[in-house]
Structures are given as C-alpha cells and as structure tokens.
Amino acid sequence: MSTPARLLLLRTGKGSHEIWSNGRLALTVPFHCKSRHTANGILKDADIDHKI
C-alpha cells in the first residue's frame, strides 16, 4: 500500500481544468471527467494505487 497522495491545487487552468502538484510533479485534471479510463490514467500519473 502506498502513502496517501498529498496533492495541492496550484491554479485553475484554461477552460475546465485544474493544475495540481505534489511538489515534484504537476498534473492537469479536468473538472468533469466522464471516462473512467481517463480518471485511472490521472490516478496512475499521481502514483495512486486506487482504480475506478
């Protein structure tokens, strides 16, 4: 089991996205993610072991 993700909101992006960071990695995340595949890809990029 991995440690909990400590992501902080850096800023709102252009359109319907937000920029989140854990200090070493920045992630672009959509406000309304309709695809579970996209959501799982974001979780994988953030090193979170949970699947939707």
Automatic annotation (TrEMBL):
InterPro entries for this protein: HicA_sf (IPR038570)
Domain of life: Bacteria
SUPFAM superfamilies per UniProt: YcfA/nrd intein domain
Gene3D superfamilies (UniProt xref): Hypothetical protein
The protein's name in its UniProt record: Type II toxin-antitoxin system HicA family toxin
Organism lineage: Bacteria, Pseudomonadati, Pseudomonadota, Betaproteobacteria, Burkholderiales
